[in-house]
Write a structure and sequence with these properties.
β1, α1 and β2 form a beta-alpha-beta unit. The strands form 2 sheets. This protein has a 7-stranded parallel beta sheet with strand order 3-2-1-4-5-6-7, sandwiched between helices. Strands 10-9-8-11-12-13 form a 6-stranded parallel beta sheet. With 364 residues, the protein is of the alpha/beta class. The chain has 2 domains: 186 residues, Rossmann fold; 152 residues, Glycogen Phosphorylase B (Rossmann fold). The protein is built from 17 helices and 13 strands.
Length: 364
Amino acid sequence: MKTILSVVGARPNFIKIAPLAKAFKKYRKEVRHLLCHTGQHFDKQMSEIFFDDLQMPKPDFHLGVGGGSHASQTARIMLEVEKVLAAEKPDLVVVPGDVNSTLAASLVASKMGIPVAHVEAGLRSFDKTMPEEINRIVTDVVSDFLFVTEHSGVHNLRDEGMDDGRIFFVGNTMIDTLDANYDAVEAHPVADELGLDKGRYIVATFHRPSNVDDRESLGALMETLGRLARERRLVFPVHPRTRKSIEAFGLAKKIPKGLILTEPMGYIAFLSLMRYAELVITDSGGIQEETTYMGVQCITVRKNTERPVTIDVGTNHLVGVGMEKVERSAMDILGGTTKPGRIPEMWDGKAARRIAQIIMDHKE
């Protein structure tokens, strides 16, 4: 029997691995699939609630690593993952996305001679000031299976000299999870609970250091959101990192009227909030994909994106980090200047099944 160990550590990882855990059940007589949660996200709203929302099995291993600097967190994950790999001797380690857990687990596995499968390989922002970009590049170099969500990923990997035999264009497991839960998303009452008019409100999410770790940047962002809140009610589920900065910079006493700050939401509730929004403003990677699938207008407050398909065929607008551009783009969209989009190729809810089949067909 083949042992496959999937390593997750942060909110987006759970969404990407949930459909794969389900897909491996088809091969339960041939595969023992284990789940290792590093504890990189340790806040209940950012972690535990997702296992319930996604109906994922409880982790077989919970490492409880917690926070810290990139170096210390990555090092602790490597030390703890090594113990799990030494004990279980898996035939394959699966790592999703681009967080520190992804990098740490792929490095340890490759050094121990264990094959690695990277789910969401090949994405590039071409901005090495982003820690995620370093994680993506290194993970792809040491991975044996490169599972790609969009054509740009295939081109990037080929440009970097990766062998075609390692590259598999399979679609997007994050969309698998959204597709599987779409009825629940549409039925969730979160918009009604917050007293929102469906199709007439804005959702904002921010967590990247460039936007929230600097007093001036975060202050300008909050002021911009406040002005937009005069046009539409604006809901801002606050990431723990962002909450900490708001309090540290003394901005909590200056929350503009009409701006609704909430705690982080569960998976279904948050998707439903976005589903019925007129506009989403974010610096998240995954949200660019989810809004594209749902046909919701999205403004991405970054200088670049590793998910260009969301701009090329989706509803995503990449506007940079200047607040004047953000506000101008938002007002255009609220005024009716929307971007027609379509669902990218192979974002059909079947990516995890393709991945499982490829892994099972690989006999080595």
